[in-house]
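Allow me, if you will, to draw on your knowledge of protein folds for a short while. I have a record of one protein: its chain in single-letter code and its fold written as discrete structure tokens. Could you please explain, in whatever detail you think fit, how the structure tokens follow from the sequence? The record follows directly beneath this note:
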Amino acid sequence: MYLIVDSGSTKTDWFAVDEKGSVLFSTQTLGLNPQVLSSAILTERIINNYDLFQNRKDVTKLFFYGAGCGIKSTTARKNVAFGSSFLNVTSVIAS
């Protein structure tokens, strides 16, 4: 399963798709801006969502579109949150 994530400071839209591109589910969380939030808060916002928590073992790739992608410190925070939330992610693509 792949996750496509469109994130801002106030809300984040999540779309889960299979390898053929079919949408499996969509959901929304509070914003995930790693420039202003710690990795612990980012992780909390992710795992507090029922759909994301239930499918955390099935995600293999994550495409993140949002703030903080070009800065090393925020990229590290974001990667810690995604790595601890989604147990089998092998690839995080950020833009």
